[in-house]
Predict the structure.
Amino acid sequence: MLNEVLKETKDKMQSTLSVFEEDLHGIRGNRASTALVDRLSVEYYGQPTEMRQLANISTPEPMTIMIRPYDKTAVKAIEHAIQEANIGINPNVDGDVIRLNMPPLTRERRQEMVKLLGKRTEDARIAIRNIRRSANDDIKMLEDEKEIGEDQAHRGRDQVQELTDQFIEKIEDAAKVKETDITEV
């Protein structure tokens, strides 16, 4: 019973960390990243479709994202989606290729990005703590129903706290790396 709670807790925390790391890719750093646009929704034949399903997205140069649609008729729809996404970059259409030239980040923009990073980091920490609370509630319920003893419950809460500390540290580490990427000139 307790092992199931611990395994489920670890899985949920790992999932939260993965979502956070994926989210970090969408925050613009110092170099061009395909993650900035690969999940953008494009209206394609009346259906919202992720850009990565419609085009090959690459970074041929450190400050350039190149989008090569599989279907040349999707160029206009992709260009429109980028403009609508308001990511601060105007698409340059060159035949059947779209180029996004990343302007250098200004100090103000860097500060905005760091502030956004801080908010997302705090949201991830809160999510981890909510998982901890839920696990501790489950352990308390097992103890109240006499499925586990007091000592086991205490050990279980200690293990949940260890998991919480580990995952919050991983979130902090990932945030520090991203902040360095944003603030590096």
About this structure: The helical segments are 2-25, 51-54, 75-85, 107-144, 150-183. The longest strand covers residues 55-61.
